[in-house]
Design brief:
The protein has helices at about 5-20, 55-65, 70-85, 105-120; strands at about 25-30, 40-50, 55, 95-100, 130. It is an alpha/beta fold.
Amino acid sequence: MDRSLRERYALQHDLRSAIAHGELSLDYQPQASIDGAVFGFEALLRWHHPRRGLVPPTTFIPLAEQCGLIGELGEWALRNACIEATSWRCSESARCAIGRATRQDAPRSTRRPRAIHRKCGPGGRPLIRLA
């Protein structure tokens, strides 16, 4: 087996493990209007690999799409963004945007994230915008 293929399979295995063992995190980038007023945040998924360090999203997102982990990865991001956003003390109108991969739009892959999204926010107030 060629070295790049072995490397890809190892990274795929590590990504499955990362989802299960808490190696993923979310960073939040403020979204602001031209006058500087913050109106929300964009959740950015990060992978802190124990040996490789920070693995760029340009590496692990396409890998997740190719190996069928994108739904699980998106669900993790949505669930954790909801948990974190409900604890924020900010404007009632502030929202958190979560990007979704095109492959997450397949009918069977959208049911669970939509259910999580509906539960998010105090009194059912939507805090998360799926982008």
